[in-house]
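Translate sequence into structure tokens.
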Amino acid sequence: MSKPDEQVSDRIIDQLRKQKLLSDSALAKLKPQLANGRLSAEDWKLAVELDRTDETKVTDEN
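Result follows.
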């Protein structure tokens, strides 16, 4: 059975995935830090910026 912090982080990750706000790979990287309560506003901003950069690269390559 998972810890309450992990259950909450799973719910947050699931909602972010459903809303397609971040890619699965970005969410996988954030999940451990989210469960440990170690994500700052800067971490979220960087995750979004890097994920958008990766999406742009994929779109440009096609």
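Note: The chain has a mean pLDDT of 89.
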